Amino acid sequence: MTTRTTRGEPRVRLPRGERRALLLEAALAAFADKGYHATAMDDIAERAGVSKPVLYQHFDSKLELYVALAARVCDDIVDTIESALDSTADNGERIGACLHGFFEFVDRPGSGYPLVFNSDMGTDPAVAPLLESAQNRCGEAIGRVLQDETALSWAECVLLGSTLVGMAQSAARHWVESGSSIPLEHAVELVSTLSWRGMGAVPQSPEQVAARAGSENGDAAG
User: For labeling, which of 43, 113, 146, 198 is most exposed (least CB within 10 Å)?
Assistant: First the structure.
């Protein structure tokens, strides 16, 4: 289906979900350029190539648009961590994959990370729960792996998972914001080594101990 612009050119009417995604991309660009507070809905509509009434059909306010954008960024971070955890069964490599994914996400232009996690909007009552939820979901994702691999309680696993997430976030932000000369791969390797050596002191589950003993006995027999 098409409509006509005021100049008579045909304009394709996009499905609602696709239009909403394009509006979010325009908002991300506008907020990144001017900041949340200095950006007007007119700026976003202009970047998206739509009228302001069309923008308001999808979002009732600038805050609602920002919250939707923040929710998308948070989901992307959680997906990054979960995909890294699923990428291998080797725990050392899992840590490296999580850190690599997080560093790349924080550094990638257009990810929306600085706009959401480095903004004073993070304390807004509509935004703060999203950030807290993302942190918790990442910590629990790592905690589920630890629960399968260690003899720790669920609460202990989540505590360690959340600690690893916090360390990854702090390291990645410092690496990006300081303009570090350390190459990404080496930065990830450094933080991975620190994390992995610390995790080596965590008591393993009986199944993991038995599996390791069987592997070592097999190596000795060979």
Answer: 198
DSSP string, 32-73: HHH-TTT--HHHHHHHHTS-HHHHHHH-SSHHHHHHHHHHHH
> And the tokens for 188?
């990830």
Amino acid at 140: E
User: Across the chain, how many H-helices and E-strands are there?
Assistant: 10, 2
Reported as a single tens digit per residue, the pLDDT across 96-118 is 999 999 999 999 988 999 999 99
- pLDDT of residue 209 exceeding 70, the answer is no
Question: Whole-prediction pTM value?
Answer: 0.82
How far is 104 from 184, CA to CA, in rounded Å? 8
Are 99 and 168 contacting, i.e. CB atoms less than 8 angstroms apart? yes
Nearest partner of 172 among 113, 116, 87, 213, judged by Cα: 113
Helix axes 91-107, 128-149, angle to 10 degrees: 160
Q: What is the CA radius of gyration of the chain?
A: 22
Which residue, among 107, 121, 106, has the nearest Cα to 31 in the 3D structure?
121
Q: What value, to the nearest 5°, has the Cα angle with vertex 142 and ends 139 and 145?
A: 150
Contact 107, 99 (CB under 8 A): no
**Half-sphere exposure for 22 (CA within 13 Å, toward CB):** 15
Q: Which domains does the chain have, with CATH numbers?
A: 12-60 (1.10.10.60), 71-221 (1.10.357.10)
For 61, the token pair is 């306010």
